[in-house]
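Tokens as discussed.
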């Protein structure tokens, strides 16, 4: 665990709103708390430096330290267990698809009283299916294959003093000995029905443990010790996971209504043992999606108690703030946003914080934290809290679960080490290596230095309130990487730009790329299915392309018929190392329609400098493309060039080794286009097409061609 850290119950609140903070501290003495306004988060000594402005609030005090643990692992909890009282014989069973069959023990269905060592637990492990009853254990003794379906059953009969366990592969493999059963005759009855809870995919130890890794379907309990005699009359419970797939509840189709709750958000809309590829959408054929994938490292909400609450003062300006925790030599700053009240803007400009993207990348373990990287961070005073060292707060959706499956869910209700103002992502030899939240402070600092007043809202705010939240602003600005969007955020921005005459400044690259889903009953959680195409950290399994949260088709917005070019004029075109190059003016820069954008700029080359990769055009690049929705009247003002050998065209544009979707060579797609176009009712869009762009704004005390160009655009847009 981290020595001192925490999280907030929400990312943002308006004046007179309230944010609760939850903290865990391993120190014995009290920790101190104050509030700062975050202006610039880059600790690179070559730039303006970290700027945290103290803000007077009622939180300034010391608070007692206490450790608040994190309990990873998903499972189902059935609270009503009365139907099992007095049971003298039973059968339990399920169909399972283990992903770590040699790691054990892993409970499939249990009712266990740890203190009394009483109850039953059907499990799997290196010896195959296992039944534990009281202080007795019996195993099939046959190793299971990974990613294969098995029917496992176990029974107990106090009358005959017999326990039995079996496993049967649903698709037997030639010359593979993985089926069998085992029986044990008892001298005395076992303590088979304890007072523990009924759990699927876990077992009640001192804390919930023995988490199952893999898919489970059709768990059931019978009142007889004979699995072959299963019928409605002897069924105590039979959980049907094909029902209510978009929920976090499990339905008992048996007579006792032993419905349950899913804990820590396991993956639903997963293909089951009956799936045969005839239907790819779970809503059309739910019986083929009757499995739930559980993981030992799933997490929704840490569930920590509140340590203190901030009531946002009514006069507190909109902006990015941090709750600073300090004890001895350790410091952590939990970011939060003060947003304006809906319909009451305090500026003509609003910055849309890409909190969905921050969250999706939250706690991204990159395995690149070598000595050189760490030493630079220590010299600069950067955050030393690295996800590579602390996996106990769950993963990013750019990582894999311990069982090798891709992480599809990400929560904000946990400490997010990567969402800190001074967090370094890459060992950037030419700059700072910042991404996401800290990288966006390059823009926030520039706005402050240039005297531009700005309101701040989050993706979650926009998704919940829609177009009316931004309708009164003259300008909406994004950060460096607004990659992940719901239908709600994309709809609001599209309406603002293409119907309401709003003006959008897209200040980054690889934006509006992936579709994510939120769930109305699971606060703070996002779902991503990395379906079919795109540059991906992992690929969704066949048949698992639809989001369980809302039934929508997941993956790229481009594959949902909404390429980024439709909104912003440019879309993801190329990716390489965290390296920056420059832009060169194109023929379009001579167009009289854009002369005001380049006013006061005499150079042909733009942005061959900066705190991100050493140049304004780098890492991920966006291009204009009329075939994908760039308006025919759009003007490409400048295009990047001379990119490093690490850059490739995005996979969705590559048809073969030589051919591309556009019909031009791969190398011609390796570019970023600074693009401008007008929309209806006086609206307009200006897009820079590069993730590293904002890192160039502060160069030479903000007096450079990148800074001048953005200032020209912003001043015209807010007129």
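Sequence:
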């Amino acid at each position: 665990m981290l020595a001192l850290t925490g999280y907030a119950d929400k990312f943002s609140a308006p004046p007179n709103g309230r944010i609760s903070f939850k903290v865990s501290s391993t120190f014995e003495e009290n920790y101190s708390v104050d509030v700062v306004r975050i202006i610039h988060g880059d600790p690179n000594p070559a730039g303006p430096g970290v700027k945290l402005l103290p803000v007077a609030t009622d939180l300034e005090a010391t608070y007692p330290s206490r450790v608040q643990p994190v309990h990873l692992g998903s499972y189902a909890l059935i609270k009503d267990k009365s139907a099992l009282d007095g049971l003298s014989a039973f059968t339990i069973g399920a169909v399972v698809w283990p992903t770590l069959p040699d790691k054990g023990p892993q409970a499939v269905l249990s009712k266990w009283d740890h203190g009394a060592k009483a109850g039953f637990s059907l499990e799997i492990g290196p010896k195959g299916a296992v039944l534990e009853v009281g202080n007795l254990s019996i195993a099939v003794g046959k190793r299971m294959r990974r990613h294969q379906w098995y029917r496992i059953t176990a029974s107990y009969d106090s009358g005959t003093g017999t326990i039995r366990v079996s496993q049967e592969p649903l698709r037997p493999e030639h010359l593979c000995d993985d089926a069998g059963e085992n029986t044990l005759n008892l001298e005395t009855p076992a303590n088979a029905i304890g007072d523990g809870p009924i759990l699927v995919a876990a077992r009640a130890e001192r804390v919930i443990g023995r988490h199952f890794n893999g898919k489970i379907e059709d768990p059931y309990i019978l009142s007889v010790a004979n699995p072959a005699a299963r019928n409605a009359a002897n069924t105590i419970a039979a959980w049907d996971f094909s029902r209510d797939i978009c929920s976090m509840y499990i339905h008992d189709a048996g007579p006792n209504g032993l419905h349950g709750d899913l804990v820590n958000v396991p993956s639903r809309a997963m293909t089951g043992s009956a799936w045969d590829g005839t239907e790819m959408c779970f809503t059309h054929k739910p019986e083929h999606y009757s499995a739930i994938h559980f993981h030992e490292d799933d997490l929704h909400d840490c569930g920590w108690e509140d340590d203190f609450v901030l009531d946002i003062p009514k006069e507190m300006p909109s902006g990015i703030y941090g709750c600073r925790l300090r004890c001895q030599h350790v410091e952590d700053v939990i970011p939060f946003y003060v947003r304006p009240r809906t319909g009451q803007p305090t500026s003509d400009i609003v910055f849309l914080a890409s909190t969905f993207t921050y969250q999706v990348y939250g706690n991204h373990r990159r395995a690149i934290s070598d000595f050189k990287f760490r030493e630079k961070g220590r010299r600069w005073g950067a955050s030393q809290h690295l996800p590579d060292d602390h996996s106990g707060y769950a993963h990013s959706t750019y990582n894999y679960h311990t069982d090798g499956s891709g992480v599809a869910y990400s929560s904000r209700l946990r400490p997010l080490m990567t969402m800190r103002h001074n967090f370094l992502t890459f060992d950037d030899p030419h700059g700072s290596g910042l991404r996401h939240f800290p990288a966006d402070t390059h823009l926030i600092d520039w706005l402050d230095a240039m005297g531009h007043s700005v309101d701040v809202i989050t993706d979650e705010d926009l998704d919940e309130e829609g177009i009316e939240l931004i309708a009164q602003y003259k300008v909406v600005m994004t950060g460096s990487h607004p990659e992940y969007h719901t239908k709600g955020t994309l709809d609001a921005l599209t309406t603002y730009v293409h119907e309401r005459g709003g003006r959008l400044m897209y200040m980054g690259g690889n934006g509006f790329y992936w579709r994510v889903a939120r769930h109305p009953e699971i606060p703070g959680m996002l779902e991503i299915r990395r379906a079919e195409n795109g540059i991906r950290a992992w690929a969704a399994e066949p048949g698992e392309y639809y989001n369980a949260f809302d039934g929508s088709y997941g993956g790229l917005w481009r594959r949902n018929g909404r390429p980024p070019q439709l909104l912003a004029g440019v879309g993801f075109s190329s990716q390489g190392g965290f390296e920056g190059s420059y832009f060169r003016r194109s023929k379009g820069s001579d167009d009289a329609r854009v002369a005001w954008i380049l006013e006061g700029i005499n150079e042909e080359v733009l942005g061959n400098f900066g705190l991100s990769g050493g140049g304004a055009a780098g890492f991920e690049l966006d291009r204009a493309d009329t075939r994908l929705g760039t308006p025919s009247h759009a003007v490409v003002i400048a295009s990047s060039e001379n990119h490093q050998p690490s850059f490739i065209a995005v996979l969705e544009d590559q048809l073969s080794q030589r051919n591309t979707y556009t019909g031009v060579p791969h190398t011609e797609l390796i570019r970023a286009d600074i693009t401008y176009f007008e929309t209806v009712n006086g609206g307009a869009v200006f897009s820079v097409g590069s993730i590293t762009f904002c890192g160039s704004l502060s160069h030479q005390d903000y007096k450079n061609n990148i800074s001048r160009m953005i200032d020209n655009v912003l001043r015209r847009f807010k007129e």
